[in-house]
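Below is one protein, fold included:
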Amino acid sequence: MVSLLYAFYGDDFTGSTDVLEQLAEGGVPAILFLRQPDAAMLARFPDVRAIGLAGEARSQSPEWMNQHLPDAFAALGACGAPILHYKTCSTFDSSPSIGSIGRALEIGKAALGGIVPILIGAPHLGRYLIFGNLFAVAGGLVHRIDRHPTMARHPVTPMNDADMRVHLARQTSARIALATIDRIQAGDAEQLFLEAVDEGMESILFDGMDELSLAEVGRILLAHQGNRFRFAVGSSGVTRALILAWQAEGIVPPPTALPKAAAVNRLLVMSGSCSPVTAAQIGTARQDGFVTVQADVAALMAGSLAEEDRLVALARQAVTSRGRVVVHSAEGPLDADTSAAGAAIGAALGRISQAVVRQTGIRRLLFAGGDTSSHGVAQMGLDALAWAAPLERGAPLVRAHAAEPELDGLELVLKGGQMGAPNFFETVRRGG
């Protein structure tokens, strides 16, 4: 294997493919493993410069993290990459009890040492960190994250404070320095980084609002990786920052024209998202000729095999007759007395997807919803994913590697609940 530039652990599957997109656009060959790779699996991909492991920590407890993350970080750290990135969602949604980014930070620091840089801003996704406060685009408008129409009301990890140091202080006792945007623009970010190291700070949070600020942070990361730190936390802004630094130093070639996705006649969409964005996409898909099938959420949560069989039969029939179908657990925000149950719903939709793929031979599949993607894809028996083509920012087309012929080469799109235009499902079918 060639020397690795970078390794990452995605706290959900959707965000992991976002990193694959950034690496592909930056000319960095990469592979995303869906289970912890052994030497034989690594040997199947000798030419990659970056590797990732898609996880499910975003929907898990700190106790789960204590049990699973040390081994995952050790395995990735042993692959020789100078930096290991714990990839979070760009909305940074988490809590002390679910998806604790603070706990992941502590585990990574204990495993790899050094100060832990944090970079959340991802302007390519409409995410901006300014003076430590997070802002995100929704509906064409920029909202402070605690006033965001979706994230402020997230059913599992609602964001009720925009100050990310306050947010993290609820999850970790780590002392976190801040490099603000004015100091970054003034060229003082590296000085602030070194001061934080000298003062024994556990972490430093970097503002990020545009390509210039990301490029400056990337320069600092590249200069000090493997020396003053080996572990970083944040969105795909970390990836973007490093790519800008690698390109500036001539470590990776300039980007080339990207391939285009081909259109397909048949598409299966599995949605466990309760986002208003996904609800609008389901409605638009219905107008575009998709058959929409509503799941009985209570039955799926109760483990009803009869309900899974019903959904498989309806999806198979729709694929055969119309070529396109959406199976969904919700169409918009849940009622106040309804449990989100992302793990149970996602796992059920994954089993249904696998059955439909095997029975129909369909070759393109879209998962909508972060938890749905993580728990659904985990049920399908895939080994790894490679980037295939761009579709919409943050939701690329990827191609599966699997031992089972019916699944090998399957094309997937893993879409976060808030991602994509109203006609996104049809965009996936048409290939752009």
